[in-house]
UniProtKB/TrEMBL annotation, chains A, B:
Gene3D superfamilies: Alanine racemase, D-serine dehydratase-like domain. This is DSD1 family PLP-dependent enzyme. Residues 248-355 form the D-serine dehydratase-like domain. Keywords: Lyase. It comes from Salinimonas profundi. InterPro entries: Ala_racemase_N, D-amino_acid_metab_enzyme, D-ser_dehydrat-like_dom, D-ser_dehydrat-like_sf, PLP-binding_barrel. SUPFAM superfamilies: PLP-binding barrel (SSF51419). Belongs to the DSD1 family.
Length: 370, 370
């Protein structure tokens, strides 16, 4: 029944191999971010049980810990109201690392540290591109945060973490290498300052899909994080980080009708299925809410989802072609390539997995919520 | 734990009373659209068990039928691959009405009609404003569709349905009345043509929140549909259909940090919690990804969520004020009013319900998926 979220397992495996090879070549540990698909079954392909992982919610942390993952980085700035769940996770004898970037957060942790039932690892987030969170690698706060963490018996300073989010605006590999190198340099600078102050660090963690695939050598860092590379999406293809036919996730939809005078094909995938993400609007090729493929995943050149309501999508052709029964008869099934796979996948509770793009062989579950 | 979705039950009840009063005054049946909250517990307030309802997915239809609702309109153009579920619903002895707008869809239904185990009611969607789906009220197709439906023993033509979606762009009540009257006039024209052709109709269904609250008399139609009025949101407030303090849904979030030099407050509600909807971007007051309130729901003047990543939001002040510890200390909880309540609610599996804006008294479940 449509809409449904389809995963092309062969492409997922190819994408996983590509990133694993990057990490191998650089001699780095790969710590995949499981936030795109949030699925234990999917993770078997790109983040097997022995792998360290990154999570975006404590719901993911709990599900993956329950499944046997033992090294988990929760890569969103910790808040006080999450400590009870953090403590429950520590009961499971995993190595759990949380992220902070302020003296206030360090003080909160120090105040609560005697309630922790096992060692909680703490990484300090470094701001390398002014994109979001993090402290400056050269700031006094960096050393003050470290001192506060180091003063608590149940807290262990594991190191530093950076995310070069600004690389999502970098349209050529030279720019992406610039962001990647900057991410490394500032992370290494922060780590050096901490080590000079006497702290021993086990984690210097960097990564984003665009920087990780840019081909720098990553000397000195300990691990690479990335997430959306597993499925890729139109934003990544628009940046040139992948090709459209690398995209491993799509939304199966049915044609509900046409408004021929306007050149519209109506489908039963609106923003509830595709998400409201319009991340390619600022790219040279605006793909609207997604590019249109036939039922077996072959791109239909020029057709894209231009508008969405909750359960309605409107497909048009870039050059104004009028859709007809040959491609868009009532009831025809199509597949829509996602603008932003993390957002589109987030609209579903499960995935329909195919290896031949004809049959659905299995269903994978997704871990939603927080 | 944050982020969480909060419902202010007192406001929900006020909003429900307001729409019920509109329907009462006009002498119309109200058929609430349950697509915003998709919750049986919430529906007890604005769509009690005896009420006809509108649904946006068959998952909603199944849950509400199971709970005892007996008159359900599935208001998205039907596709062939949904017939098996439709047939399972008919086993429950409910009055189920589906929507079609083409000869192809009517033919599909007629071909499959002998497999139906009970009468399936069919409404024809009328396009009253060129906004989305539907046939023209004056078209030949209208009568041809009716004839096809009428020719099948298990299909029953119930009438016509229209949705004045273009009213979401109407910033004054006069324009909304125009769209409302146009929606009525064209629906009544279509109904008259069908009745002249000998069909007896039980449903002339119109509605959208902006048109339903515009104050026209609705003479001749049988029922009014609307959905987002139950919670309202920043889009509706921006149109002038409600006030900001009517909004009954918000996202509870925590401050994770600040970047003082940029005037940023970072919070743990990103687009995964707030949705990617930026529906006020085309309105005079762009509220970004949501307006900021304190923990108890009082608006903090000028503060709004300007940027989002998956689990990070960035709050700024409209006039560039620098956030400080007085309002935005690390760990402070805030509430974000949604841009589009249907989209924000869709990001959650449940709601935390409060009547006093201090305590959470109960949890309501949401019906996600299709």
């Amino acid at each position: 029944m449509t809409p449904a979220c389809i995963i092309d397992e062969a492409r997922l495996k190819d994408n996983a191999r590509r990133m694993a090879s990057v990490a191998d070549t650089a001699g780095l540990t790969l710590r995949p971010h499981v936030k795109t698909l949030k699925s234990l079954e999917a993770a078997e392909i790109y983040a097997p049980l022995s792998s360290p992982i990154t999570v975006s919610t404590l719901a993911e942390a709990q599900a993956f810990a329950q499944a046997g993952y033992t090294d988990i980085l929760y890569a969103v700035g910790l808040t006080p109201n999450k400590l009870a769940v953090i403590n429950r996770l520590l009961h499971q004898e995993i190595r759990l690392t949380v992220l902070i970037d302020s003296i206030a957060a360090a003080q909160m942790l120090a105040t609560q540290a005697d309630k922790l039932t096992a060692t909680l690892h703490v990484a300090i987030e470094i701001d390398t591109d002014g994109h979001r969170a993090g402290v400056d690698a050269q700031s006094d706060d960096l050393l003050r945060i470290a001192a506060i963490i180091d003063g608590s018996a149940t807290l262990s300073l594991s190191g530093v973490m950076a995310h070069a989010g600004a690389s999502y605006g970098a349209f050529d590999n030279e720019s992406r290498q610039h962001f990647a190198q900057q991410e490394c340099d500032k992370s290494l600078l922060a780590a050096a300052r901490l080590e000079d102050a006497g702290y021993s660090l086990s984690m210097i963690s960097v990564g984003s899909t665009p920087t990780a695939l840019s081909g720098i050598t990553y000397e000195g860092v300990t691990e690479l994080r990335a997430g959306v590379y597993a499925t890729f999406d139109c934003v990544m293809a628009g940046l040139g980080v992948c090709q459209y036919n690398d995209i491993a996730l799509s939304v199966l939809t049915s044609v509900t009708g046409r408004q021929a005078d306007k050149g519209w094909v109506l489908i039963d995938a609106g923003w509830m299925a595709l998400s409201r993400d319009t991340g390619t609007a600022s790219q040279p090729l605006d793909c609207g809410y997604g590019l249109v493929c036939d039922e077996n995943g072959t791109l239909l050149d020029g057709w894209y989802v231009q508008q969405t309501n909750q359960e309605h999508g409107i497909i048009v052709h870039r050059d104004g072609l009028i859709p007809d029964d040959s491609q868009f008869a009532y009831g025809t099934m199509l597949r829509i390539l996602p603008i932003h796979a993390c957002a589109t996948a987030g609209q579903f509770n499960d995935y329909h997995v195919t290896t031949d793009n004809v049959h659905v062989e299995k269903i994978w579950q997704r871990i939603n919520g927080w």
